[in-house]
Structure formats: C-alpha cells, structure tokens
Amino acid sequence: MPIWSFKYSRDALSEPDKVGLAKDITQLYTSVGLPAFYVNVQFFEMGPTDMLVGGESRSNFVNLSIVHIARTFKTETDRSDFLKKIDLILERFRNKGLDWEYFVVETLRQQWKINGMYPPLASSDEEKEWARLNRPVEHNRAHLSPLL
C-alpha cells in the first residue's frame, strides 16, 4: 500500500486541490494493477508554528512523505521513472507559488496486514480479485507471510 501524507501550510491546498491530487495519485497506482483501496492519501494542514523549516515558520510550503509497502522498486530506472511521475503530479504546486519537498520510503511487505490478513502476493489472481472488488477478501494465503 502506498501512503502519501501531505503536510502543508495553512490555506496552501483547497478541497478541490486535495481531491484532484488523490485522484491522480490513485490513478498512478491503479494503472499498474494495484487495487484502488491500497492507495491512502492524507492531508494535514499546519499552522504557522506547526511547520518550521530551519527553525522558522514557513508559509506556502508542502512536505510530502510517501511510504511504499505493496511494491518496491526493482531497478534504478524504475525508481527514476517513478520519481518523474511524482514530479508531474506535484508540478501543480509551482503554479500556486508553493515550495515543496518529498521523500519515498520502502518497507518490508511482510510487515503489512489488512483486516488481520497478509495481502495477496503481488500480481496474483487473489490480488487481481481484490482490485476488481476494490476491497479485501479472505484468500488462500491470508494467514501466511508473503515470504512463504
């Protein structure tokens, strides 16, 4: 599951901005086969003293943390191509006069569960079923670590 957590200065993002971002981010992942419900996009508006950069209040700023669990990059080309896609999604910030930064963290899939189940293996028939239904359902390997 990817989790995108946006922390942004007050009034930097409107409701339509947030909905548009969430749709574009979800499309990024569903276009490569991930179930839409794997994609979590969170928004946290920060007050003037809630986001300090270099010890000073920062307005017109967005900080984005992206955590990848469902998939990890296999090659540097994959990583570079994905970062370019992030940059395209975030380009809208430039038009709003915002500064932004982001980072991507990859973590171990075997440390992830949904509704107490290990999610199906990547690209498996079970995962395709989850994507079709857009929700988790019991599957044959739900009790087994993804490493087994």
Describe this structure in words.
The chain is α/β, with parallel strands linked by helices and 148 residues long. The chain folds into 2 domains: 2-107, Macrophage Migration Inhibitory Factor (2-Layer Sandwich); 118-148, no CATH class. It is built from 4 helices and 6 strands, in the order E-H-E-E-E-E-H-H-E-H. It has helices at 15-30, 76-90, 92-95, 125-133; strands spanning 2-9, 40-46, 52-53, 56-57, 61-68, 99-106. It has a 4-stranded mixed β-sheet with strand order 2-1-5-6, with helices on one face. Strand 1 (2-9), helix 1 (15-30) and strand 2 form a beta-alpha-beta unit. Helix 1 runs antiparallel to helix 2. The model has no long low-confidence stretch (mean pLDDT 93).
